[in-house]
Design brief:
This protein is an alpha/beta fold. The protein folds into three domains: 71 residues, Arc Repressor Mutant, subunit A (Orthogonal Bundle); 137 residues, ATPase, nucleotide binding domain (Nucleotidyltransferase, domain 5), CATH 3.30.420.40; 170 residues, ATPase, nucleotide binding domain (Nucleotidyltransferase, domain 5), CATH 3.30.420. It has 14 helices and 16 strands. The strands form four sheets. The protein has a five-stranded mixed β-sheet. Strands 14-13-12-15-16 form a five-stranded mixed β-sheet, with helices on both faces. The longest helix is centred in the last third of the chain and has 25 residues. The protein binds zinc ion. The site of zinc ion (ZN) has 6 residues, from loops. Zinc ion (ZN) binds next to loops.
Length: 403
């Protein structure tokens, strides 16, 4: 490694140490990193100059000994913006380096009724307004990550295909810049379920876990897999497309052109179809117009004790357990986190799904894998997207200019 690389790596080591502990003394940093005091002084000075660390105190370490200053994250002027574009909304979530929430907003938007160009213009508009609001708060953006429900080619920042948005081969970063987003802020994109999984591991129900699966129940079914502490992406970044694993070849036709995909058993459209009186098979996707409204209707009928709704939810729970058994046998997660609409019906879905999982999974693995409802709800992907930007700063503090 050359000097610049070593320096960058050491800056990251110190910043990450303080970030993980909340605060730390210079001597504790030296012990944890194995770096000498002179080096620590130089690194801390640079991190302070970049507005990433500050020193507070003095703090008395017990009754004897001299008062010592304490290092803590500064970063109040460094912002991370996570965006999510989905079938019926655009979400924006911004934090500073220390994780303080600056903006958390969700705007209703019908992507299914818009062509990709109009959707991207709308997304760019929301980003520009949010960036302007952050500037008014005195925050400079370190980066933007956009969550998209589809297959992503991260290197080229391109959405290969997002069926439920009607996007195919969309170079998102380029299009956002031509629609007015500043070219000086780095933009990355990722799959929404991958990002939601990261959010659950960093600040949700799977905090600190290194092996978990996140399932998002929406019009489609997304899946984010964290294995050994990292998102599992596969050779082309397409890993985790379990929504289109065929579980019932004689089943309903799916939007992808196959029949009996898992999505046709557990997606929101499947639930709505089964809960519709006198429902018949076929064209299940027509049940997905206005998903939020459909879900609200189902919750209302469930509260009124409608037996058809209860049967439909139990049927989804059963198929959730069957699909989960496949995931447990493949990836051996400790926890399966249910997001999206699954979380809203978790009290009924989880007992049914857990029983089926325990019946079908490999015995030892099934015993050790539980379901849990996501506490982050529909905001998980945008939160995870902001987390990715923070992680980049922690990995390379030199990405933030000296003030
Ligand atoms: Zn399918």
């Amino acid at each position: 490694m050359d000097q610049t690389t070593i320096r960058r790596s050491n800056l990251s080591l110190v910043l990450r140490h303080v970030s993980e502990r909340g605060q730390s003394s210079r001597s504790a940093v030296a012990v944890a990193t194995g770096l000498n005091k002179t080096t620590i002084t130089s690194l801390v000075n640079e991190l302070q100059a970049r507005g990433l660390l500050k020193e507070i105190g003095p703090r008395h370490a017990g009754s004897v000994g001299r008062p010592s200053l304490v290092l803590t994250l500064d970063g109040s002027g460094v912002g991370a913006l996570g965006m999510e574009v989905n079938v019926d909304y655009i979400a924006a979530f911004a934090t500073d380096l220390a994780g303080r929430v600056l903006i958390d907003r969700r705007i209703g938007f019908d992507a299914m009724e818009s062509d990709p160009g109009r959707s991207l213009d709308k997304l760019a508009g929301v980003i520009c307004r949010t960036v302007a609001d952050l500037e008014r708060l005195g925050v400079a953006l370190a980066g933007i990550t956009v969550a998209v429900p589809g297959l992503i080619e991260a290197d080229t920042c391109t959405v290969v295909v997002a069926p439920n948005l009607g996007w195919r081969g969309v170079p998102v970063a380029d299009r956002l810049v031509s629609a007015g987003v500043s070219p000086h802020v780095p933009i990355t994109i990722d799959n929404d379920a991958n990002l939601a999984a990261l959010a659950e591991c960093s600040s949700g129900v799977a905090m600190g876990m290194s092996d978990m699966v996140y399932l998002t129940g929406e019009v489609g079914v997304g899946c984010g897999i964290i294995s050994g502490g990292r998102p599992l992406r596969g050779a082309d970044g397409f890993a985790g497309e379990v929504g289109h694993v065929v579980v019932d070849p004689a089943g309903e036709p799916c939007g992808c052109g196959r029949a009996g995909c898992w999505e046709t058993k557990v997606g929101l459209a499947a639930l709505v179809r089964m809960a519709t009186p006198g429902h018949s098979p076929g064209a299940y996707r027509r049940f997905v117009r206005d998903p939020e409204e459909r879900l609200a209707e189902i919750e209302q009928r469930r509260a009124e004790g409608d037996p058809l709704v209860d049967t439909a939810v139990a049927e989804v729970g059963l198929w959730l357990g069957r699909g989960a058994a496949l995931l447990v046998n493949l990836f051996n997660p400790r926890l399966i986190v249910l997001g999206g609409y699954f979380a809203r019906l978790a009290d009924r879905l989880i007992p049914v799904a857990q029983k089926e999982l325990d019946r079908l999974g490999v015995a030892i693995a099934a015993e050790r894998c539980d379901f849990a409802a996501s506490p982050l709800g529909f905001g998980a992907a945008a939160r995870g997207a902001a987390h990715v930007v923070i992680e980049r700063v922690l990995s390379d503090p030199t990405s933030i200019a000296i003030r």
